[in-house]
Amino acid sequence: MDFDFTWLLLSLPIAFVLGWLASRFDLRQLRFENRQAPKAYFRGLNFLLNEQQDQAIDAFIEAVQNDPDTQELHFALGNLFRRRGEYQRAVRVHEHLLSRGDLSRADRDRAQHALAQDFLRAGLLDRAEAALQKLEGTHYENAALLSLLAIYERSREWVQAAAVAQKLDATEQASYTARRAHHLCEQADEQISAGNATTASAMLQQAAALAPDAPRPAIDMAALQLRRDDANAAFATLRALSERAPLALPLYAAMLQQAAVAAGHAGEALALLQRRYEESPSIDVLEAVIALGGVPPALPGALPSPDDAPVPRDGYIAHLAHQPSLVAASRWLAGERFEHEQFHPQVQRALDQATRPLMRYRCAACGFEAHQYFWHCPGCQAWDSYPPRRVEEL
């Protein structure tokens, strides 16, 4: 049987037409998908600018599905998830980016940094630490060191914090000497608690040499010297500090008074405190003066007449002449006798209750208040953010 070539000749044009139609269909589909991706991207951007994060996320997810190779869409989507608190989804996005073999070095470092931020915001400090350590030697190294420093300070790992702060200090982009001195003081506190006073003293001396103008190393050293019954050394330390850091005197005025009494230098301490009080009145300095049996300098007419010898309690009246103070008024009234003395305890309790919040310290960075003075704010983790004065005096 002979083969009929007629059918072959007819099938060639038909195959060509079918191939051409198929290619046109694929091309249209490709063009449609390419148009859909930027449309979804711009729609998501518009939602983002209008602070409609839910709709923006939906639009970006659609754009990523249409164009899964676009890194910028993944970064935008991951950052949106993190801002919304959906840290698990943000981690998945950035881990997916890191798993891609075609990612450039710069984008890989960027994804690693974003992943570390996801762990930080989620409170997964161990995983954040591991992610940040992988950024050493990259463009994000300085930012990673700052984040590591915050992690170590928050978890009170002072040895690691000191090492990171030293690296940051070496970059010369900012000075971290004061913070490194704080780290040494914190380590000294731990050594004191463990009974290693000699090691603690060496650390405090190192901190003082590192930040000679910072008041904390000297204050902590004086406290350690008092614990070791060396009142003369403690008084000498605080007397020298009063010349370098007079504004911080309210923080250590009571300790100065205690060391002076124990060392037999009460008269010298009283003169020093009275002089500093005259320069900058403070309730803490006032109480130290009164504890030493003195009265601070007063404005004319603030104290009883010269015929009546002033007593230490009159110091509160002298303080009221310098500045209004509910605390000073309450302390003065506590020692007074009145016609209706039977009601005095109730009135005094009410005044003490009212003045208790006024004796707090307040962080200048976040407003966190505490009766104890903090060098490291427990609210915002800032250093040296507490003024050395009570809330009433701010």
TrEMBL record:
Signal peptide region: none
Binding-site residues for Fe cation, renumbered to this chain: 363, 366, 377, 380
LapB rubredoxin metal binding domain boundaries: 361-385
Stored InterPro entries: LapB, Rubredoxin_2, TPR-like_helical_dom_sf
Recorded coiled-coil stretches: none
Subcellular localization(s) per the UniProt record: Cell inner membrane
Keywords for this protein: Cell inner membrane, Cell membrane, Iron, Membrane, Metal-binding, Repeat, TPR repeat, Transmembrane, Transmembrane helix
Topology term for the membrane: Single-pass membrane protein
All ranges on the Cytoplasmic side of the membrane: 24-394
First-listed, main subcellular location of the protein, grouped into a coarse class: membrane
Similarity annotation: Belongs to the LapB family.
Function: Modulates cellular lipopolysaccharide (LPS) levels by regulating LpxC, which is involved in lipid A biosynthesis. May act by modulating the proteolytic activity of FtsH towards LpxC. May also coordinate assembly of proteins involved in LPS synthesis at the plasma membrane.
Name of the protein: Lipopolysaccharide assembly protein B
This protein's encoding gene: lapB
